[in-house]
């Protein structure tokens, strides 16, 4: 079997790459190889609307089955790629099948980082990455009164919010001294800690997990200080490990992800990488090589790779943006706040509608906007043009950000 383009990974990036190829009038054969049994679907709702039962699975499909058929895109679900032969231009699947390609787009994402401690594989210990993960939690939810969430990043906070709204007793454990410590400033961290506590979540900071207790099924989480927190459900949200082993084994440059250039090319001929697993130099991070775990990044890089394969001029330079829904709070982020040396709060956090603006050497590099869509929309220009507004005026929520641009 041979395809002009083989796409490994059926998430946002893989699906968008196939869509973008057809939009670019690419007429060659295209196949998506996904290791899950499902058609491509949206992952963010797994820890939010899908877990909460607010959206059926059909509503989170990226496109219906007929869409792929109509565009002559071969959808190979349940197909895991285990090795790549860049010289032969082929991949080998777990079942032993060899599939040839003209160009390869690696969009395999990553797998959830798991606890390394004893008890990490007990029944009732979950990660949130696939539909199957979410379905297992949903099946167990009815018998759960107490839950522990390990990790105070977005996945952990979103899952904690859903569990709290289901009336569960929730304890959230974060090893650092605040939630969202790696991605946001202290004002936003403290706001979300307060919000979760107001909804009944026991947020504990600076704590380490010793092990998960139970025989067959989880019964508790033992902390490093010896305390045992009784629980029937554990959700682990401590990041992902990029799924790049076959590419690295084939000789691709990388480590924490696979290195790509501005066209999303890897160091191997005719092989591209996009999305969560793509290590790229980002202009909004002062040129540092980073991975971005976001739908926006996966889609933007997918379009760049597809256009390049179709012979069109394209390079990646999109401004990063993200979002998170917790309770009735919509957080929208534009830019990357890493390395900021000043943050300005617009509005009052107590009003539950405010923004945190991050500056570096006087220039705006990012905004976190909570229930403040107007700031998110207007603040984008401050980030993309690296503007240096007066911090005093920036802090005045009565002055629209467009006036500062």
From TrEMBL:
Gene3D superfamilies: 3.30.390.30, FAD/NAD(P)-binding domain. Transmembrane segments: none annotated. Residues 321-405 form the Reductase C-terminal domain. InterPro entries: FAD-oxidoreductase/Apoptosis, FAD/NAD-bd_sf, FAD/NAD-binding_dom, FAD/NAD-linked_Rdtase_dimer_sf, Reductase_C. Keywords: FAD, Flavoprotein, Oxidoreductase. The keyword Protein transport does not apply. Residues 3-302 form the FAD/NAD(P)-binding domain. It comes from the Bacteria. Its cofactor is FAD. Pfam families: Pyr_redox_2, Reductase_C. This is FAD-dependent oxidoreductase. The lineage of its organism: Bacteria, Pseudomonadati, Pseudomonadota, Alphaproteobacteria, Sphingomonadales.
């Amino acid at each position: 079997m041979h395809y002009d383009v083989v796409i490994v990974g059926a998430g946002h990036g893989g699906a968008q790459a196939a869509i973008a190829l057809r939009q670019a009038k690419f007429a060659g054969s295209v196949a998506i190889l996904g290791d899950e049994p499902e058609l491509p679907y949206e992952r963010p709702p797994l820890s939010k609307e899908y877990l909460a039962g607010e959206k059926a699975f059909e509503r989170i499909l990226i496109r219906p089955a007929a869409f792929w058929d109509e565009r002559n895109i071969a959808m190979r679900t349940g197909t895991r790629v285990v090795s790549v032969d860049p010289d032969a231009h082929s991949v080998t699947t777990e079942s032993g099948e060899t599939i040839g390609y003209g160009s390869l787009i690696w969009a395999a994402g990553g797998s959830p980082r798991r606890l390394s401690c004893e008890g990490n594989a007990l029944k009732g210990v979950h990660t949130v990455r696939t539909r199957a993960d979410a379905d297992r939690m949903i099946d167990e939810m009815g018998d759960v009164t107490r839950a522990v969430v390990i990790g105070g990043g977005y996945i952990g906070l979103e899952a904690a919010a859903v569990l709290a709204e289901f009336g569960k007793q929730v304890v959230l454990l974060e090893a650092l001294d605040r939630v969202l410590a790696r991605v946001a400033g202290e004002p936003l961290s403290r706001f979300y800690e307060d919000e979760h506590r107001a909804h009944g979540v026991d947020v504990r900071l600076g704590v380490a997990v010793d092990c998960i207790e139970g025989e067959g099924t989880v019964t508790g989480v033992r902390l490093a200080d010896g305390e045992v927190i009784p629980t029937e459900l554990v959700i682990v949200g401590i990041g992902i490990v990029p799924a790049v082993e076959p590419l690295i084994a084939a000789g691709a440059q990388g480590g924490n992800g696979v290195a790509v250039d501005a066209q999303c090319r890897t160091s191997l001929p005719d092989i591209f990488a996009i999305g969560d697993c793509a290590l790229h130099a980002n202009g909004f991070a002062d040129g540092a090589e980073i991975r971005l775990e976001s739908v926006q990044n996966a889609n933007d890089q997918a379009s760049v790779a597809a256009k390049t394969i179709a012979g069109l001029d394209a390079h990646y330079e999109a401004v990063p943006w993200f979002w998170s829904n917790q309770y009735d709070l919509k957080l929208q982020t534009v830019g990357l706040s890493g390395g900021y040396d000043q943050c300005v709060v617009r509005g009052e956090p107590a009003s539950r509608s405010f923004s945190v603006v991050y500056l570096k050497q006087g220039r705006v590099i990012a905004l976190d906007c909570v229930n403040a869509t107007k700031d998110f929309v207007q603040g984008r220009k401050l980030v993309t043009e690296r503007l240096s507004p007066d911090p005093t005026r920036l802090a005045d929520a009565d002055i629209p950000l467009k006036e500062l641009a």
